[in-house]
Design brief:
Length: 253
């Protein structure tokens, strides 16, 4: 269990969140949604250990995140920021292998290469293996960084808008892979999404954040209510049901 307890999060002198508490269980995908500037990235970075809360605590299986334990904490986490950076000279294969940097020594075992190739194959990147990241499209780069995250074999996946540059098919590819691995490896997965319908389709729970406050958390059918969404986004929102009785969010002009 990943747990945030009474967090205070600041950016400079601005308080982003106060008394923010939420839990993330193994085997579950939580979608973090909410308007621009709501504090989603700040929360994700706090969970990853890259942003130090000014109050409260974060624990993983009861073990608290501390300055001294930060590196060990981060070794358990696959984190994909909104914009992943890598030096342009790095190839696609090297980028995925960099996900294994904590494990590899000077020798690269065949099994590691095969595992990286399997990941590249899964995301349709195998023929790009030797290309430098600088020559890829934004969506292709996003897939590479997702594969790099998976290569780490983390216990926790923290993904910040991982599908923002992906076409419809690749959005499904990534979210399906996340679902499958979350189930198979009992990962704790937290994913920031702006597409509420994608969130409803793949997440077990949706956490709605606005102005740093948790306004709703629960299964998609409960968390995505038209009055709440209309209020926090400032547009008229209608929530319909699809054939599987899942919420279908429409914004009206
Ligand atoms: N480095 C920074 N310095 C100062 N303020 C910051 C910094 N990063 C973020 N903020 C502010 O903190 C607040 C929360 O930002 P955050 O990036 O966490 O929001 P978000 O919900 O992820 O937004 P988006 O959906 O636009 O990515 C915003 O008001 C933002 O302007």
């Amino acid at each position: 269990m990943l747990r945030a307890e009474s967090l205070t999060l600041r950016q400079g002198s601005q308080v982003i969140s106060r008394s923010l508490s939420l839990d993330f269980a193994r085997g579950g995908i939580t979608a973090l949604v909410g308007p621009n500037g709501a504090g989603k990235t700040t929360l994700l970075r706090a969970l990853q250990g890259g942003h130090r809360p000014s109050g409260g605590r974060i624990t993983l299986d009861g073990l608290a995140l501390t300055d001294a334990g930060r590196r060990r904490w981060q070794a358990r986490i696959g984190y994909m920021p909104q914009e992943s950076r890598a030096s342009d000279g790095v190839t696609v294969l090297e980028a995925v292998l960099l996900g294994r940097a904590g494990t590899l020594a000077f020798h690269l075992p065949d099994a590691e290469l095969r595992a990286a190739a399997t990941l590249l194959q899964e995301f349709g990147l195998l023929e790009l293996a030797g290309r430098s990241l600088a020559t890829l499209s934004g969506g292709q780069r996003q897939l590479v960084f997702f594969a790099q995250c998976l290569a780490r074999e983390p216990e926790v996946m923290l993904l910040d808008e991982p599908v923002s540059a992906l076409d419809l098919r690749h959005q499904q590819t990534m979210m399906r892979a996340l679902r499958r691995l979350t189930d198979a490896r009992q990962l704790i997965s937290v994913v920031v999404l702006h597409d509420l319908n994608l969130a409803a389709r793949y997440a077990d729970r949706i956490a709605v954040l606005a102005e740093g406050r948790l306004r709703a958390i629960g299964p998609p059918r409960e968390a995505l209510s038209a009055p709440l969404l209309s209020e926090i986004y400032g547009v008229t929102v209608r929530v319909l049901r699809d054939a599987d009785n899942m919420p279908l969010v429409q914004s009206l002009v």
